[in-house]
Amino acid sequence: MGRVSGQTDMEGSLAEVGLSIRARRLQLDISQEMLAHLANIDRSHMGRIERGERNVTLLNLLKISRALSCRPSELLQAAGL
Amino acid sequence: MGRVSGQTDMEGSLAEVGLSIRARRLQLDISQEMLAHLANIDRSHMGRIERGERNVTLLNLLKISRALSCRPSELLQAAGL
């Protein structure tokens, strides 16, 4: 069974999800500010999520994915998770 | 574009993810206590996540999915997300 491979690896996953959110946002050609507005998430918090600096919660991931017209599972898959 | 459909709906998603974690755990025939141990998550917190009473974070979802030998995107997909 694959076990937890350490905190650094896990935090790398946050960065990957942030990149996946950013890629989808750029695909839709909307600004980070607009995404924050659509998802009803504080703009600076949205920036930190995209940079992988915050441990995003499932509810925020749902809000972001709805604002990006995609499924949260798709955002994770795009991040290799 | 699909917009946020309200907080109740979103919280229902937490319950769906909890059920999806529980289903995978039962498939592997391990107790909730063992899952909490494998994922290094407090036992009572693990219970609340399974019951959809906590807004699980991405890092905890990663820890749980690794303990369950599956991908976090699979847990979300099984929850219809």
SSE run of chain A: HHHHH
Q: What would you call the quaternary organization?
A: homodimer
Largest interface: A-B, 32 and 32 residues
Low-confidence stretches of chain A: none
Fraction of helical residues of chain A: 55-70%
Main sheet specs of chain A: none
Which structural category fits the helices and strands of chain A?
Answer: mainly alpha
Strands of chain A, total number: 0
Radius of gyration of chain A: 12 Å
Count of separate DSSP helical elements of chain A: 5
Proportion of strand residues of chain A: under 5%
- Broad shape of chain A: globular
| Arithmetic mean pLDDT of chain A | 92
Beginning-to-end CA distance, first to last residue of chain A: 16 Å
Core attributes:
homodimer; 81 residues; mainly alpha; 67% helix
Detailed description of the structure:
The structure is a homodimer of 81-residue chains. Helix content of chain A is 67%, strand content 0%. Chain A is globular. Chain A starts with 6 loop residues before the first helix and ends with a helix. The mean pLDDT of chain A is 92. By secondary structure, chain A is an all-alpha fold.
